[in-house]
């Protein structure tokens, strides 16, 4: 048999949005000499967790609009013209009234993604690419077989299947730590049906960003109703006596609000090139300085776009800039600031004019994904402690309808937010709910909640959480680590930080997840790249990819994977 002519077998583990983008890349490549198998736990492809009943109810909406979403097979605007009438009717969407700048119901977006998979499959078949979709199947393990240059996929109740390449794109995962064992304690608000509760007491929410807002939208509807008044005001009428929601966050700040983006795809072409990054690494002893990325990928963007703002921040370092921005936000009462920013965002949308420093911060956040693995441990700690808290607030892009609901709940005396600082602790109780321990002005405070929901968002999962245990057992994957630039700092850090390890005279910080390279290939402890196994599952690569930017991440990661897959298979 002519090996070059034999079809390459490629497996995509997970048929949600990241699997969809990977499938799109493969089926649209010029090469067609491969067969694709997709393994999906659910009975449909495309929607994944966030855009299906596992992550959304009818009240949940996207925080992006059609104009901000990379085209898959066709745009949402074009798909609406051919979509089943029953789906359009269900979500009250019509071709005539469709607005590409408006956010959409998440479940509707899930229908769109599923339809995109089907359209891509038809196009692939016309090109002669065979697709095998395995639905309702659980992949229990993945085993690398280097001697045969193959990877085995172990499906529950089936024989092993062998592939030339496997791409892991299993999407979101919220492991259950206390839920099920502790009454009325939830490790996440997903699926939202489980928190569709009528309650007569205060609910404790940990977190204040989009995941928390998902919980608020569900809980509010179970315990009252929103009314759109004739005078233009929006109000909440409480029906369950005693029901309240208390959000908790480190800074006590609410997330920033969706505004008009000048570049709806967040300047992906304007970020530092790989050549510039490699040149900086070579100049700095094998490390990429965070300050260099901040200077080039953030501050210098204002020289032309906003010279007045650039003059204000020109001499600021990272800590000074973040400190100034956080101090400004912390000076104002959270809901007053939220209202002010809502009005500012409304003007931005009306005038189609960006709030440029926020847009630039979103670009910086996205741009941190590629170079994060080249930071020193010292700079990674700075990134996580200093920059990411600001980024997580500013780039949430809370949709306007969610803002109106939060303000209405607050005005009705139902919703409040508490700043708990960095050292707060949640203590789940066997009797149910949880106690929240934190300090205010050095005074210890403990508040009990009969119902408690962890809403901090997708956690960065550790190496030990990685689900395909044979890859750990056989040493195919390794824990992600970053080297300390200074052995002295590493040694001092090791005394009080279990995540710091020593190898010879070098110190490393263990970061969440597994080691990968720029093409999302897994790397073993000896630093050897595996040419057969790729991973795009964000919960397990969070140490090297600190920005969870959803669809944007899927698009960028799938492009990097495709390039290498084609090279490896001689299909370029």
Average pLDDT value? 92
Helical content stands at 25-40%
C-alpha end-to-end distance: 21 Å
Approximate strand percentage = 15-25%
Task: Give the overall silhouette.
Answer: globular
The biggest beta sheet is recorded as: 6 strands, mixed
- CATH topology of the largest domain, anyone? FAD/NAD(P)-binding domain
The CATH architecture of the largest domain would be: 3-Layer(bba) Sandwich
CATH class of the largest domain: Alpha Beta
Structural class: alpha/beta
Q: For the CA atoms, what is the radius of gyration?
A: 24 Å
| Uncertain regions spanning at least 5 consecutive residues | none
Number of strands: 24
Q: Report strand order across the widest sheet.
A: 5-2-1-9-24-23
CATH homologous superfamily grouping of the largest domain: FAD/NAD(P)-binding domain
Kindly describe this structure:
The chain has four domains: 8-173 and 518-568, FAD/NAD(P)-binding domain, CATH 3.50.50; 185-255 and 398-454, FAD/NAD(P)-binding domain; 274-394, no CATH class; 479-513, no CATH class. It is 34% helix and 22% strand. The chain is built from 17 helices and 24 strands. The strands form seven sheets. The protein has a six-stranded mixed beta sheet, with helices on one face. The chain has a five-stranded parallel beta sheet with strand order 10-19-11-14-15. Strands 6-7-8 form a three-stranded antiparallel beta sheet. The model has no long low-confidence stretch (mean pLDDT 92).
What are the salient characteristics of this protein?
572 residues; alpha/beta; FAD/NAD(P)-binding domain; 4 domains
């Amino acid at each position: 048999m002519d090996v070059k002519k034999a079809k390459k077998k490629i497996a995509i583990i997970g048929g949600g949005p990241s699997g969809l983008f990977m499938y799109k890349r493969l089926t649209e490549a010029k090469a067609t000499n491969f067969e694709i198998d997709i393994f999906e736990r659910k009975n449909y492809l495309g929607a994944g967790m966030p855009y299906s009943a596992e992550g959304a109810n009818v009240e949940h909406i996207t925080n992006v609009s059609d104009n901000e979403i990379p085209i898959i097979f066709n745009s949402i605007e074009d798909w609406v013209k051919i979509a089943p009438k029953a789906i359009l009717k269900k979500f009250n969407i019509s071709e005539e009234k469709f607005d590409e700048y408006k956010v959409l119901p998440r479940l509707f977006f899930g229908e769109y993604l599923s339809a995109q998979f089907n359209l891509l499959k038809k196009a692939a078949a016309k090109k002669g690419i065979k697709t095998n979709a395995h639905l309702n199947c659980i992949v229990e393990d993945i085993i690398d077989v280097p001697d045969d240059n193959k990877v085995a996929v172990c499906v529950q109740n089936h024989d092993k299947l062998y592939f030339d390449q496997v791409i892991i794109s299993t999407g979101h995962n919220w492991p259950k730590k206390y839920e099920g064992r502790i009454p009325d304690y939830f490790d996440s608000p997903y699926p939202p049906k489980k928190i569709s509760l009528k309650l007569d007491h205060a609910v404790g929410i940990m977190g204040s960003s989009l995941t928390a807002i998902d919980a608020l939208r569900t809980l509010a509807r179970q315990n009252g109703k929103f009314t759109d008044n004739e005078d233009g005001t929006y109000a909440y009428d409480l029906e369950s006596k005693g029901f309240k929601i208390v959000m908790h966050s480190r800074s006590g700040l609410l997330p920033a609000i969706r505004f008009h983006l000048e570049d709806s795809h967040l300047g992906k072409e304007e970020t530092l090139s790989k050549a510039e990054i490699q040149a900086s690494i070579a100049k700095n002893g094998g490390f990429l300085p965070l300050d260099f990325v901040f200077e080039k990928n953030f501050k210098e963007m204002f020289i032309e776009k906003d010279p007045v703002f650039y003059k204000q921040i020109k001499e600021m370092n990272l800590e000074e800039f973040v400190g100034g921005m956080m101090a400004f936000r912390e000076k104002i009462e959270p809901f007053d600031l939220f209202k002010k920013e809502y009005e500012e965002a409304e003007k931005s949308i009306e005038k189609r004019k960006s709030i440029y420093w926020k847009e630039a911060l979103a670009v910086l956040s996205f741009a941190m994904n590629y170079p994060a693995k080249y930071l020193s441990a010292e700079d990674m700690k700075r990134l996580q402690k200093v920059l990411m808290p600001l980024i997580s607030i500013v780039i949430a892009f809370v949709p306007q309808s969610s803002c109106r609901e939060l303000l209405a709940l607050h005005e009705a005396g139902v919703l409040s937010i508490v700043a708990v600082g960095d050292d707060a602790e949640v203590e789940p109780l066997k009797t149910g709910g949880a106690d929240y321990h934190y300090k205010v002005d050095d005074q210890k405070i403990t508040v009990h909640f009969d119902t408690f929901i962890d809403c901090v968002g997708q956690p960065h999962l550790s190496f030990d959480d990685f689900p395909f245990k044979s890859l750990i057992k056989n040493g195919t994957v390794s824990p992600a680590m970053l080297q300390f630039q200074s052995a002295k700092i590493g040694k001092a850090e090791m005394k009080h930080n279990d995540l710091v390890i020593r190898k010879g005279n070098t110190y490393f910080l263990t970061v969440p997840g597994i080691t990968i390279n720029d093409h999302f290939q897994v790397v073993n402890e000896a630093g050897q790249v595996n040419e057969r196994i790729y991973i795009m599952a964000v919960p397990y690569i969070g140490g090297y990819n600190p920005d969870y930017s959803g669809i944007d991440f899927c698009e960028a990661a799938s492009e990097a994977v495709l390039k290498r897959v084609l090279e490896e298979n001689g299909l370029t």
